[in-house]
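[job 4471] stage=fold_predict status=RUNNING
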Amino acid sequence: MKKMKLLRISVLMLMMTWSCTNDLNTKPKVELTLDELLQQDPNAITGILSKLYGSFALSGPNGPGSSDISDDPGESPFLRGIINLEEFTADGMKNRWGDNGLDQLTTASSWDENNKFFRYLYNRVYYTIPQCNNLLSVLKNVDVPNKDNVISEVRFLRSLAYFYTIDCFGKGILLTEENFGSGIPAPEASRQQLYTFVESELLDIENKLPDTSEYGRANKSVARMLLAKLYLNAEVYTGTAHYDEAATFIAKVINEGGYTLDPDFVHIFSGDNNNSSEIIYPLIADPVVSQSYGNTTYLVNGSLNSATMSIGDYGATEGWGGHRATKAWYGLFANSASGLASSNDQRAQLFWTTGHTFEMTDYKEWTNGYPSIKFRNSNFFGSTVPTSFSGTDFPLFRLADAYLIYAECAVRGASTASMSQATIYVNQIRQRVGADAVTASDLTLDFILDERGRELMFEGHRRTDLIRFGKFTGGSYLWPWKGNALNGTLIPDTYKLFPIPQKALEANPNLSQNPGY
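[job 4471] inference complete, writing structure tokens
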């Protein structure tokens, strides 16, 4: 099976299930404790580690209908939550289904602590973190192959989960292996406290991780990329800018990681993208071994509809007819369908325009707005057999993003970045897709935000980007259906954070709600 050694979960792991408990300090229910399991078979660590990596893309250990938590296995996987909360709440992508809270996200209006999609992501975070803590507590007392490296990988995965807590909810509960299993509800941790913890973790493991690793596993560049993203958003998270540090660590990724831009943009989002030279850290998918309604199956199938599109051309056997782009995305290339078709920029052609309208006058009408065909399940090289589930990996971190982070730091005045190098990086991105070259004088903050939209939309960054650029809340920047208005309207600053889910508040009395909810 292609690229799936990492995510083949061992028979031993299939004996294990986790479920959320009221105090969020989850323990596994196992026929053997982790300690006993690893004492008997140290090589079982591969399966256990696979489970942790898989928690960001899969719903449960027994296929797409199983769930590690009590939430819906189709709706609640981690990646699906990232897309729902980062893309549909922002300008470029909308969903038409409207089921039980999805309308609130896609219109950035009237959301509250009872919206199930906030609960899904929060629960996934606090499912993954205790798993990591449990393994870290056991690893103190057992010997397994490459123990120090395994510990660093687990700490990275825990940091990644905490990153989304910091970004989406602004606060939470700080759980580590030191207080794992405590029956006492943990105190609330502020955004600053969580930020400081993740920063210290990543700084400590940066040089403990290997220079290179198997595809899909953490290495130095993966940790540095997350650290750079943390520093890039530090002014939002803590009130203190750290663009110098962001530029320093992203330069390490660029100069030391050994990654290169993929010569073919579409290849990065195709079924055979596991051999792309650009992907720094993927969330792995496979149509047989790791089936999920929450990995890129959600992006591919959700953007296709056999009534208006040739879905087999994109490696799919079914289309769900849910997601479409708005002119806030494709309008970055041209102001009409004909303009998109004639654009020199290859990224402009990654929208299905036939039978669809440029304007999204009704976000619930499938033919309003253009479906994105950026993600597809078809192979870029060779033939494709369409499958029900996607085998396209999700590029959570990739080199073009690193280039644009460097360029943004330079524009923001980072002493560790130069405008001349930033211009080179931006032009390498643009020249790959046939777009016109730019000069250093073109690199303004508005240009960087637009270029991030052209390059990275639908990859789980957009809401965070808009907040960092001061464009998400308020009324200075409007997009279709912002605030549930056709042409957009202002939304309150409190929307920069999502509400703490009501069930989390009930589970831990030490948690308090975010302002405005």
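[job 4471] summary: The radius of gyration is 22 Å.
[job 4471] exit 0
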